[in-house]
Design goal:
This protein has 173 residues and is α+β, with helices and mostly antiparallel strands. 29% of the residues lie in helices and 29% in strands.
């Protein structure tokens, strides 16, 4: 598998906007948290840099790294790695949130993105991480369990009206 998971570079502007076309316009949060319609790419890059460093974070946000999965120069998905947890992320979200564009699902890319994300978390000095997913998202919880995710519990999410699975993954070297 030749997937490269990494932060965006200035030279990725064309790939970023091409990749965006793979996502529903009504919910681009599956692809990007920082970019808004009409925003220059350079502005988004500055926001991502500040968020990674924990500078000028919006209320309720923690430092995080947005990593994109590249296959043959195309962006096929993204991972948000949260460097720490707050109360909201402990309930839903955890340390890692990932998404793969529909045309690239069921090809092992999500598994590879999670594998590389776990190493990224180790490099941040984390010794265990939380990942959450919807109880009915069987592909997601199978990936989490593949990486030795230990189910802590299932909780009801009032906002989305669904059951959420909360897992911990130990990051032993």
């Amino acid at each position: 598998m030749s997937l490269i998971l990494r932060p965006l570079k200035e030279s990725d502007e064309t790939s970023f906007f091409e990749g965006m076309k793979l996502w529903p316009e009504d919910d681009l949060s599956w692809y990007t948290f920082a970019w808004k319609p009409g925003m220059p790419y350079s502005t988004m890059m500055a926001i991502l840099d500040k968020e990674m460093k924990g500078i000028d974070l919006a209320p309720g946000r923690v430092p995080h790294s947005m990593l994109y999965g590249f296959v043959d120069g195309k962006i096929i998905g993204r991972v948000s790695v949260r460097h720490s947890l707050n109360e909201m992320l402990r309930k839903r979200g955890g340390n890692i949130g990932y998404a793969v564009a529909e045309p690239y699902r069921r090809s092992g890319y999500a598994t590879e993105m999670v594998r590389q994300s776990l190493q990224y978390c180790r490099d941040l000095g984390l010794d265990k991480i939380m990942i959450t997913c919807s109880d009915n998202n069987i592909p997601s919880w199978k990936i989490i369990e593949k990486f030795h995710g230990e189910l802590q519990d299932k909780v009801w999410d009032e906002e989305d009206n669904e059951m959420i699975r909360r897992y911990w993954i130990p990051l032993t070297k």
